[in-house]
Design a protein that fits this description.
The structure holds 2 protein chains of 2 kinds.
Chain A: H1 2-14, H2 16-44, H3 53-59, H4 67-83, H5 88-93, H6 95-100, H7 106-140, H8 146-176, H9 180-209, H10 217-231, H11 235-247, H12 262-270, H13 277-308
Helix pairs in contact in A: 1-7, 2-4, 2-7, 4-7, 4-8, 4-9, 4-11, 7-8, 8-9, 8-11, 8-13, 9-10, 11-13
Chain B: E1 3-14, E2 17-23, E3 26-28, E4 32-36, H1 43-51, E5 58-63, H2 72-78, E6 79-82, H3 94-104, H4 109-122, H5 138-152, E7 156-160, H6 168-183, E8 188-193, H7 196-202, E9 205-210, E10 213-219, H8 220-225, H9 237-247
Parallel strand pairs in B: 4-8, 4-9, 6-7, 7-8
Antiparallel strand pairs in B: 1-2, 1-3, 1-5, 9-10
Chain lengths: ~325, ~250
């Protein structure tokens, strides 16, 4: 597996595709962070320092969107671009039958390619976050606390798992579809489906299953639960729910809809304190597990299909 | 003489179509065995089964003492295979392509380098070693394919249509290479082709395959002697071949 990993890494870093992607991500990220930090500076100068100010660099939206939103939206495309032609390109150029006639297990090919992709993505993310942290420190003049660093690290881990899921999916498509164009389109179609349409669809389906009459709280709650459950089929929503809790300590739940009485409201606003890091992790753990499980499912199918495929040189 | 390849009623079905039908043959050590037949006769499918790249529907094979279904890796370690459309990474040089194959075979880099240099020398590509393979001609790619087989130093070499699409000069140098592999490197060779005239020049024995079935096997002299004696003239492989297909 190691020779394949090594070659794929070299390929990634030599490819124009990766270069363009990296430049795009860096440009957008730099621009967003710069705008956000300028905003923060002008709005917050003079006041007392807010707790977790540093994390706001990544979560507040400047002119357009925040960095976390950008990664949630654009991350899948990174995974798809890096993996959509992993297997079928080799199949079409005849190199797959060459590799497979060497003493190499078939799963080593998938593993090597996946790990090389993950390593490339990790390098990309880590350098990105380090770069932005540096920029943020210079512009807003605030040093992150240990907890903020830990939260950022966890955020990076979740992001890598998230993009890894899409990479695994793209590799699966590249095994299933013989044509490179089809596998790319299939990946992009699924991405659009789960990032845009599932949001509208979940509401519609929930209204059909559990219609709400005259704002009956029980019915509203039921409707909302169903909508949430459908929404969370999408890894994009899983990821945004998970990261928003990690990056914003004041969010105590991933639920978008919370029913509270007036007394509770008062007490909440009086004792509005941040969630400790360990508690944030507890909230997020199921999401991370689900993302990992989805990736594992993609892999399972990839192995299953690839092991039984006949490899011809055409 | 040790037997290198032995198959017993090897059969491969694609749906209802029998691509390979009860194929039984053996190849002995040191010989050049020609696998002949028209396009779609099942030659490539048979080879894929020998290498464990596809599973036989029924029957068994034994390559160098290993079952390709159970121990494909041991077979692949010892067999050099050059597919019909030999694929290379076009954005890498010839040397890098070979180095990748050497790494996949777990050759240490120093050992790999001497083997690669020697192999490129043998196939007369030493001067183009640092050119991108994308710029190679068909003949050069095919020779590079032979070099790739050479660096593995296999006991058995399987060549699938090695002369297909080459110009006369390319065909000659390919046939020379096959002879070199057989005589000087002492390799056992399984050669697959529908180009009879060329096969005749290098093969010790041939097997003729049609619609998945082996219709004849033996040395060219033996095959020529079978059936009606042609009026005193020496039969070429082409005559023998046509005879089998006219009988169909």
């Amino acid at each position: 597996m190691f020779p394949i990993f090594r070659k794929e890494m070299a390929d990634h870093f030599n490819s124009t595709r990766f270069l363009i992607l990296f430049c795009l991500v860096i440009c957008v990220a730099l621009l967003t962070t710069y705008m956000v930090s300028m905003n923060l500076r002008s709005e917050l100068s003079g006041g007392a320092k807010i707790e977790y100010l540093y994390l706001m660099l990544f979560t507040t939206s400047g002119q357009f969107f925040s960095l976390t939103q950008f990664i949630a939206f654009f991350g899948p495309l990174i995974g798809i671009i890096m993996g959509f032609d992993a297997i079928n390109r080799e199949r079409n150029s005849g190199t797959l039958s060459k590799i497979l006639s060497q003493p190499v297990y078939r799963d080593a090919i998938i593993n090597g390619k996946f790990l090389a992709g993950i390593a490339t993505i990790s390098i990309m993310f880590i350098s990105l976050v380090l770069l932005l942290s540096g920029l943020g420190m210079v512009v807003i003049g605030v040093v992150p606390t240990a907890q903020e660093v830990a939260r950022l690290a966890l955020y990076m881990l979740i992001s890598i798992v998230y993009v890894g899921f899409w990479l695994g999916l793209a590799i699966l498509f590249s095994i299933v579809f013989r044509s490179i164009g089809t596998s790319a389109l299939a990946g992009v179609a699924l991405w659009i489906l789960v990032s845009f349409f599932i949001g509208f669809g979940s509401g519609l389906i929930a209204d059909v299953i559990a219609p709400v009459e005259q704002s009956n709280p029980d019915q509203v709650l039921k409707n909302q639960r169903i909508a949430d459950a459908i929404r969370r089929v999408s890894p994009v929503n899983l990821y945004s729910d998970a990261t928003s809790t990690i990056m914003d300590p004041y969010r105590k739940t991933t639920k978008s809809f919370v029913l509270i009485g007036p007394m509770e409201k008062i007490s909440m606003s009086r004792f509005n304190s941040a969630l400790p890091f360990t508690q944030s992790i507890l909230v997020v753990a199921p999401y991370l597990t689900t993302l990992l499980a989805l990736t594992a499912v993609c892999f399972g199918f990839s192995y299953l299909i690839f092991m039984r495929q006949e490899i011809r040189s055409i | 003489m040790a037997v290198v390849i032995e198959t017993h009623e090897l059969t491969k079905l694609y749906g209802k179509h029998k691509a390979v039908d009860c194929l039984t043959f053996e190849v002995e050590q040191g010989e050049v065995f020609g696998f002949l037949g028209p396009n779609g006769a099942g030659k490539t499918t048979a080879i894929l089964m020998l290498l464990g790249l596809t599973e036989p529907t029924s029957g068994s094979a034994n390559v160098l003492g290993f079952d390709p279904v159970r121990e494909p890796l041991k077979v692949k370690q010892r067999v050099g295979y050059m597919p019909e459309h030999v694929g290379f990474y076009d954005d890498m040089t010839a040397h890098e392509n070979l180095q990748y194959v050497a790494r996949l075979n777990w050759l240490p880099d120093s050992e790999a380098k001497t083997r690669i240099d020697r192999a490129l020398e043998k196939v007369k590509l030493a001067n183009e070693a640092d050119k991108l393979v994308g710029a190679y001609s068909r003949g050069m790619r095919q020779r590079l394919g032979v070099a790739e087989v050479l660096i593995k130093n296999p006991k058995l070499v399987i060549l699938d249509e090695p002369t297909l699409g080459l110009d006369p000069e390319g065909i000659n140098s390919m046939l020379e290479l096959i002879k070199f592999l057989s005589r000087e490197e002492k390799k056992t060779i399984l050669l697959c082709s529908h180009l009879l005239h060329q096969t005749q020049q290098v093969c010790d024995r041939v097997g003729i395959l049609n619609e998945g079935r082996l219709v004849a096997k033996g040395t060219i002299e033996e095959l020529a002697g079978e059936g009606i004696q042609a009026e005193g003239k020496k039969l070429s492989l082409e005559d023998i071949y046509m005879r089998y297909f006219q009988e169909e």
